[in-house]
Specification:
Elements (H helix, E strand, L loop, with lengths): L6 H5 L6 H7 L5 H7 L6 E5 L5 H8 L3 E5 L3 H4 L7 E3 L13 E7 L7 H11 E14 L4 H10 L5 H4 L17 E11 L1 H9 L2 H5 L2 H14 L5 E13 L7
Parallel strand pairs: 1-2, 1-4, 2-3, 4-5
Antiparallel strand pairs: 5-7, 6-7
Helix pairs in contact: 2-9, 7-11, 9-11
Length: 246
């Protein structure tokens, strides 16, 4: 694969792939979401919600969901049951102490982390939780590993799980983040895999020739009909410190 575009170009590219993102990205296991919720949670924030794969899981639990997303194209595809709001992690458009939990799916690495941590502490209520999470292709599964080798090395567990360092420093705002790894399998077809590949920032920004080459190689490696891919959901949950200011 050719040299990757810059971090800033990738971070701001996803609107152009919104339809592919909605069609191809996996959701998040219900058990993971439930485990990361504080007791009695009602109002939650999906921060950098994209097209809402995590929002959908939160809504299924009967929660009141605010989905904050900077891209107009992505935000337009968020499930209708949520309140979709334009905004960013570094300046969350919500009042102080207004939500019980914050989830961040597949986006924390795009943030200005110190600013995002401070903003999350501000909008969380006492005892609220912050959970960044990622769906990663499971390197122990041959088909998932093959897909990651061809098209999505940045989303392979073999690369992303090597360093168990928490995604942020808790400081005096949060408890030490607690890591959980959850394996699960999800049904796919080639059409959904193609959308998954097209939704990545590298493929959105790639030239037509490079994109076509990657898609052709991936198509040849995937089975016909319906099949399963194996994923690992990595989540890091932290609770707002009692001493944190609003």
């Amino acid at each position: 694969m050719t040299a990757q575009p810059s971090w800033e170009a990738r971070r701001t590219s996803f609107g152009a792939g919104a339809a592919s993102y909605a069609a191809g990205r996996p959701g998040y296991p219900r058990e993971v979401i439930e485990r990361c919720l504080p007791a009695g949670a009602v109002e939650v924030l999906d921060l950098a919600a994209g097209t809402g794969p995590l929002t959908a899981g939160l809504l299924e639990l009967g929660l009141s969901v605010v989905a904050v997303e900077p891209s107009d194209e992505m935000r337009a595809l968020i499930p209708a049951g949520a309140r979709a709001v334009a905004g960013a992690a570094e300046e969350i458009p919500l009042p102080d102490a207004s939500v019980d939990a914050i989830f961040v799916g597949q986006a924390w690495h795009w943030f200005d982390v110190p600013r995002a941590v401070a903003e999350c502490a501000r909008v969380l209520r006492a005892g609220g939780t912050l959970t960044p999470m990622w769906n990663l292709l499971d390197a122990s599964d041959p088909l998932s590993l093959r897909l990651s080798d061809i098209a999505m090395i940045d989303q392979c567990s073999a690369r992303m799980l090597d360093d168990p360092k928490p995604p942020f420093t808790a400081g005096d705002l949060f408890s030490t983040p607690r890591r959980t790894l959850t394996r699960y399998r999800l049904g796919y077809t080639w059409a959904r895999v193609e959308a998954f590949i097209r939704s990545t920032s590298v493929m959105i920004l790639a030239g037509d020739e490079e994109r076509d080459r990657v898609l052709a190689e991936a198509r040849a490696a995937m089975p016909d009909g319906e099949f399963e891919l194996s994923f690992i959901c990595e989540s890091w949950t932290s609770q707002k410190a009692p001493t944190a200011t609003q």
